[in-house]
Write a structure and sequence with these properties.
The protein is mainly alpha-helical. Helix content is 61%, strand content 4%. It folds into two domains: 4-36; 47-112, no CATH class. It contains six helices and two strands; from the N terminus they run H-H-H-H-E-H-E-H. Helix 5 links the parallel strand 1 and strand 2 (101-102). The chain is globular and about 45 Å long.
């Protein structure tokens, strides 16, 4: 599952952090490919996602993108990739489902087994 808004935010954050005058052409082309090539399925949000997102934010998590990714993964009962171990720990400490959030390393290990 890919969240287009988070992907956009990461691209923009990295370009700004590197002091680039413009977003690199490769990044723009890559985003267009992901969104329009049919190689991924875009998942539109539902009302229940907003409820779950708000629940996480109301418990003290501040990153809207993390909370939205979590809510969508919960609704779809599918794993979502994240590198944010602090978020996973937050979910666990708050008694929330956290096993659906996995790292790319965990995914890689599963495919090698």
């Amino acid at each position: 599952m890919v969240m287009v808004a988070e992907l956009e935010a990461v691209v923009l954050k990295e370009a700004k952090k590197k002091g680039l005058e413009r977003v690199p052409k490769q990044a723009l082309e890559g985003l267009d490919y992901l969104v329009y090539s049919g190689s991924i399925s875009l998942v539109p949000p539902r009302g229940e996602d907003l409820e779950s997102t708000y629940h996480v934010l109301n418990r003290g998590w501040r990153d809207l993108f993390d909370a939205t990714l979590y809510a969508t993964a919960i609704r779809l009962r599918t794993e979502a990739l994240t590198l944010d171990s602090a978020f996973k720990r937050f979910l666990k400490e708050n008694g929330l489902e956290h096993t659906l959030l996995i790292t790319h390393k965990e995914l890689e290990r599963r495919h090698k087994a």
